[in-house]
Write a structure and sequence with these properties.
The protein is α/β, with parallel strands linked by helices. The chain folds into 2 domains: about 1-110, Ribonuclease Z/Hydroxyacylglutathione hydrolase-like (Metallo-beta-lactamase, Chain A); about 135-255, Ribonuclease Z/Hydroxyacylglutathione hydrolase-like (Metallo-beta-lactamase, Chain A, 4-Layer Sandwich). It is built from 9 helices and 14 strands. It has helices at about 35-45, 60, 65-70, 150-160, 175-185, 190-205, 215-220, 230-235, 240-255; strands at about 5-10, 15-20, 25-30, 50-55, 75-80, 90-95, 100, 105-110, 120-125, 130, 135, 140, 165-170, 210. The strands form 3 sheets. The protein has a 6-stranded mixed β-sheet with strand order 1-2-3-4-5-6, with helices on one face. Strands 7-8-9-10-13-14 form a 6-stranded mixed β-sheet. A hairpin with a 2-residue loop joins strand 7 (about 100) and strand 8. Helix 5 (about 175-185) packs antiparallel against helix 6. The longest helix has 15 residues, at about 190-205. The protein binds zinc ion and fe (iii) ion. Fe (iii) ion (FE) binds next to helix 2.
């Protein structure tokens, strides 16, 4: 039986996600931004959480850790490199670690850049990835703790996942990302179509996530450092991939 996934908004623009394995009855919470919204989602689904999978130490991803641990006696998993900053952590993971959710295999991909220890969680069988604040729909996380080459390597790892991998992200930032993306890739017709769809979804107060790796590859400027039209638009035809990525990130910081 495939895993079931419940996505919901927490705080103002964070996503909460539950992943449920029906055969074992186990449920993972991907990050814990807000206790009340997570409790409501658990009530709605009838699932009992067995673990929290933490992507990074920022408060908007760990604030409900201790309250949920206290209530459900669940296990908290998170990156080895950030263990000192993740409340209630029981088990640390690094590149290549595997976490079992019942029979479902969850692989850890280290994706530093936004923070130095950020990890993403990948379920290869159902082809699902949780990329939190590394890869967003039409964007990527701000570089708080790392330089552009580090984030570029992380995004390359995610870009190499199968194109039909379904991607859940940490925030509903897609509309602002779309408006920015059009400024660096204005002639991309797939991007223009997607931006129109996103405007309509947000006008109806609907989420723009999840996305897919394939959709990001064709429209997300932060994965399109090789694209001739973007390079030409930026006047960077001869620059390295990392230089193009860094320039796009810098422009977004000032957008
Ligand atoms: Zn963050
Ligand atoms: Fe965040």
């Amino acid at each position: 039986m495939p895993v079931e996934i419940e996505q919901f908004i927490c705080r103002s623009d964070n996503f909460g996600v539950l992943v449920h394995d029906p055969s074992s009855g186990q449920t993972a919470i991907i990050d814990a931004p807000e206790e009340a919204a997570i409790l409501a989602a658990l009530k709605r689904t009838g699932w009992t959480p067995t673990m929290i999978l933490t992507t990074h130490h920022h408060l908007d991803h760990v604030e409900a850790n201790l309250a949920l641990k206290d209530r459900f006696k669940l296990k908290i998993v998170g990156p080895e490199a950030e263990k000192a900053r993740i409340p209630g952590i029981d088990q640390t993971v690094r590149q290549g670690s595997v976490v079992q959710l019942g029979a479902e295999r969850i692989e850890v991909i280290e994706t530093p850049g936004h923070t130095a220890g950020h990890v993403s969680y990948h379920l290869p069988a159902p082809k699902v990835a949780f990329t939190a604040d590394t890869l967003f729909a039409l964007g990527c996380g701000r570089l708080f703790e790392c330089k552009p080459p580090v984030m570029h390597e992380s995004l390359k790892k995610l870009a190499a996942l199968p194109a039909d991998t379904v991607v859940y992200c940490g925030h509903e930032y897609t509309l602002a990302n779309a408006r920015f993306a059009l400024t660096v890739d204005p002639t991309n017709s797939a991007l223009k179509e997607r931006a129109a769809r996103i405007e309509a979804l947000r006008a109806a107060d609907k989420p723009t996530l999840p996305t897919t790796i394939g959709e990001e590859l064709s429209t997300n400027p932060f994965l399109r450092w090789h694209d001739p039209a973007i390079r030409k638009h930026l006047g960077m035809e001869k620059a390295s991939d990392v230089e193009v990525f860094a320039e796009i990130r810098k422009r977004k910081d000032n957008f």
